[in-house]
Design brief:
Number of strands of chain A: 10
Number of domains of chain B: 2
Structural class of chain B: alpha/beta
Shape of chain B: globular
CATH superfamily of one domain in chain A: Galactose-binding domain-like
CATH topology of one domain in chain A: Jelly Rolls
Largest interface: A-B, 45 and 56 residues
Strand content of chain A: 25-35%
Strand order of the largest sheet of chain B: 4-3-5-7-6
Oligomer: heterodimer
Distance between the termini of chain A: 97 Å
Number of helices of chain A: 1
Largest sheet of chain B: 5 strands, mixed
CATH architecture of one domain in chain A: Sandwich
Structural class of chain A: mainly beta
Order of helices and strands of chain B: HHHHHHHHHHHHEEHHHHHEHEEHEE
Order of helices and strands of chain A: HEEEEEEEEEE
Strand content of chain B: 5-15%
Helix content of chain B: 55-70%
Helix content of chain A: under 10%
Number of helices of chain B: 19
Radius of gyration of chain A: 27 Å
């Protein structure tokens, strides 16, 4: 009896030890940072692998035309330090100095007035493509209301942390290239197109080389 | 007494302006990789009391030791507690002292030219920018000016205390950066070129020996970590070799010979114009005028400047913080031009215009675009995005208390600074076998390989380390 009692005690103690061992913190041997010299001002192999072959075509209805060329542009930053808002619809998407507009830091938007309601097929945006960078909180909305309070539809949103306070988005962030970003407008009918961003991976500013809106004027 | 105060009031005003420009909102700019690297070293010194000179890609230890009293005064006793303001106060205070030392050095020109020289340095864009930047350059300039002021006083008075002071300044220069001898040699060359009068003492050789001995002693104290790491003294020899290789070899920092001249004239980048034309023109006028005057000090400054500009310009390795070395003597020559003006009101107007132009540029350089890649002084600078990593890591560690944060990238500074004090953070330069973690940060170049090794679902976002260098951030998706 005494023996079995002792055995029970040993068993309990062992079980307690095992449970305690279960809670032993995981010991990780992680490498420390290496001290290094001044980073070099060269382009590192830090780019998204280039698209192999041609980008898949976005299928749009026959009769789709470019609607945005030369159309008026307004912005949350009405007095850009660099460039002019008109650059956004002037057709020059080369991206060199003097062809892009620079808006201030924080969340900024630009808005294109197509002049009349249109059935939209696609929106293509070039923010800045002379360097590998990613624009944060890229949101593209359309509306019939110039103040974007009514009948607002979101076509693209990669604001994964809701920094623009327009709701979390699930679209992917992307690295800017000269190919621009093609956004499927899915036939939405609207007169106004508004694009948001919240700085980029190089600085806190917002840039646009060009925005092209394709579709057909609504009948 | 009152006249004494009034006499020094202009210097006090200039010093206050210099201090204000150098200390206002010091934490505003993200940490550059070099600043972060050195701030982490300060943190280790704070925590362990140990410092070991590393000749590879590192300069002397004065910067780190100078940060200690400031950290203690601000109640920061660990790397985790240390902040940007504390470390940047080191160059900020040194930069302000440098302005006053230039005024003392320019004193033989007269009171107002000395005030003008100090004022030009107080508002010069490179001087302000790098006085807010935790690297060695500002300390080197300040120690050089201290050595020059002491040497100048010794030359005039012959008092041995000034020679020792110059030796201390020289020792601090050596303990700051391995390029220090260049400036000493340039100073001697300029001295020989201007054929200065003989010093006031007859014991020149003895005094120079004492000054030289003091220089070596001070440098030894620092490189041996105050007698606790004598291998550091041996490694200084290697540092000279590393410095030479970096200066002349394939460092990745090679630039054309006119690089520094462009910084002091005019350049346009991404629609923004950066210039110091008014200041440089005035200094050039002052430089030409020295050959028509008997001012030996100005002649010395002109020759010294020519030597330094020539050496820096002909050296393939160039970084913008070296421009800081040109500011004191350019300021002195500009002040010489002011002093040479025939009427006082003309000097005041010209000086005012130059100060206003420089002040405008300084505002853009140091406060409006401090980390913008178009800013010629923001060299390979970290992006504002780097500030976002810490919140992500804290959230991830709270959510997964046993999992590590993995940084897998060929370059990752300044992240060790921003993630300081957090547990379970590791750094890899190539993907390890196990890539999973509470948060995985990989350079976009390695993101594909990392992605292939991850198990389970991760959300992926993109953040910048610096312009052109983007990181993929993998966060485990919520179940």
């Amino acid at each position: 009896m005494k023996r079995s009692f002792c055995s029970l005690l040993v068993l309990l103690a062992t079980a307690a030890l095992v449970r305690a061992e279960d809670k032993v913190p995981l010991k990780l041997d992680l490498p420390k940072p290496l001290f290094a010299g001044t980073p070099r001002p060269i382009s590192l192999p830090n780019l998204e692998p280039p698209l192999v072959g041609k980008r898949p075509d976005l299928m749009v209805p026959a009769g789709t035309v470019l609607l945005s060329r030369g159309k008026p542009v307004t912005s949350s930053d009405s007095l850009p330090v660099i460039g002019e808002l008109a650059f956004i619809t002037d057709g020059d998407k080369s991206g060199v100095d003097g062809t892009y507009v620079e808006l201030g830091p924080m969340v900024q938007w630009v808005q294109i007035d197509l002049g009349a309601p249109a059935k939209l097929a696609a929106i293509v945006v070039w923010h800045f493509h002379s360097q590998a960078r990613v624009y944060h909180a890229v949101i593209v909305q359309v509306s019939d209301d110039p103040t974007f309070k009514q009948n607002v539809r979101t076509l693209f949103n990669n604001d994964d942390d809701n920094s623009a306070k327009l709701g979390k988005g699930t679209d992917f962030a992307y690295i800017e290239t000269n190919a621009g970003r093609v956004i499927d407008a899915k036939g939405a009918t609207a007169r106004y197109v508004r694009l948001y961003s919240n700085g980029n991976t190089s600085d806190e500013l917002n840039h646009y080389c060009e925005v092209e809106v394709f579709g057909q004027l609504a009948k | 007494m009152r006249s004494h105060l009034l006499r020094h009031l202009p210097f006090a005003v200039v010093a206050l302006i210099a201090l204000g420009l150098r200390t206002h909102d010091l934490a505003h700019r993200p940490m550059h990789a070099d600043e972060a690297n050195q701030a982490v070293k300060v943190g280790e010194l704070l925590e362990t009391g140990r410092y070991a000179f590393d000749a590879n890609d590192h300069h002397g230890p004065t910067l780190y030791y100078a940060a200690l009293p400031l950290a203690w005064m601000r109640g920061q006793h660990s790397l985790a507690a240390l902040d940007e303001t504390t470390v940047r106060l080191v160059p900020a205070i040194a930069g302000t002292m440098g302005v006053l030392l230039l005024a003392a050095f320019a004193a033989p020109l007269g009171r107002w030219p000395a005030v003008a020289a100090a004022a030009f340095m107080a508002v010069a864009p490179p001087a302000v920018y790098y006085s807010r930047y935790f690297v060695q350059e500002t300390l080197l300039v300040t120690f050089l000016l201290a050595a020059l002021v002491c040497a100048q006083r010794w030359w005039r008075t012959g008092r041995i205390a000034w020679a020792i002071g110059a030796g201390v300044g020289g020792g601090l220069m050596l303990a700051t950066k391995e390029s220090a001898p260049l400036f000493a040699v340039a100073a001697v060359v300029a001295l020989l070129a201007v054929r200065a009068h003989l010093p006031a003492t007859r014991r020149v050789g003895r005094d120079i020996l004492i000054a030289g001995g003091t220089t070596i002693a001070v440098a030894l104290v620092f490189y041996s970590s105050f007698g606790t790491h004598f291998a550091g003294v041996r490694d200084t020899v290697a540092a000279v070799g590393h410095g030479w290789n970096r200066a002349t070899g394939d460092s990745g920092h090679e630039k054309p010979w006119w690089y520094y001249l462009r910084l002091f004239t005019w350049q346009r980048s991404g629609g923004l114009v950066w210039e110091q034309l008014a200041f440089s023109t005035l200094a050039l006028i002052g430089g030409v005028a020295v050959f028509f005057s008997e001012r030996k000090l100005l002649r010395w400054a002109a020759v010294y400047l020519v030597v330094i500009v020539a050496v820096l310009s002909l050296t393939p390795y160039k970084t913008p913080w070296h421009a800081m070395q040109l500011v004191p003597m350019l300021s002195l020559l500009a002040a010489g031009a002011i002093a040479a003006m025939p009427v006082g009101w003309m000097a005041a107007v010209v000086g005012g215009i130059v100060l206003a132009a420089q002040g405008f540029q300084t505002n853009r350089v140091a406060f409006v675009y401090p980390a913008d890649e178009r800013n010629p002084y923001a060299y390979v600078h970290s992006s504002p995005d780097v500030r976002k990593f810490r919140a992500l890591a804290e959230t991830a560690l709270a959510r997964s208390p046993t999992q590590p944060v993995r940084i897998i990238s060929e370059e990752y500074w300044p992240l060790p600074w921003y993630l300081r004090g957090l547990p379970r953070v590791g750094y890899w330069s190539a993907p390890p076998d196990d890539c999973d973690g509470a948060l995985v940060i990989a350079s976009v170049g390695q993101a594909g390989a990392v992605r292939a090794k991850l198990h389970g679902n991760y959300r992926e976002a993109l953040l910048g380390l610096r312009p052109g260098f983007v990181c993929s951030v993998f966060t485990p998706a919520s179940p």
